[in-house]
Amino acid sequence: MGTYMDVHRGMVGITAEQLNEAHAADLAIEKDEGVHFQKAWADPESGTVYCLSTGPSAEAVQRIHSRTGHAADEIHEVKLSV
Predict the structure, then answer these.
(1) How many C-beta neighbours within 10 Å does residue 33 have?
(2) Could you report the per-residue pLDDT of 33-58, keeping only the tens digit for each?
């Protein structure tokens, strides 16, 4: 299993409720791809959203995000952490 940080852009003005709804949508189907979305963060001013997940591949993460209507602009595998 890998760890992934993905970036979504263009979500200017996102609210805490909208972020929670998007995260919940991912959680509802994440098992279909063997992915687990751990946390999400957002900056409403810049419209940038970050998600931390684990899963078999970046492609699996993207498939879940795409199915829930918010495909990631970038997905980076996190190889080292402390």
Answers:
(1) 17
(2) 999 999 999 999 999 999 999 999 99
Whole-model pTM?
0.94
Q: Which residues contact 60 (CB under 8 A, 6 or more apart)?
A: 33, 34, 35
Q: Which residues contact 48 (CB under 8 A, 6 or more apart)?
A: 7, 8, 9, 11, 42
DSSP state of 37: E
The total number of residues shown for the chain amounts to 82
Q: Domain ranges for the chain, please list them.
A: 2-77
Query: Counting beta carbons within 10 angstroms of the beta carbon of residue 49, is it exposed (0 to 12), middle (13 to 18) or buried (19 or more)?
Result: buried
Alpha-carbon distance 45 to 68, whole Å? Answer: 23
- For residues 78 and 6, give the distance between their C-alpha atoms in angstroms, rounded to a whole number: 10
Class of domain 2-77: alpha beta
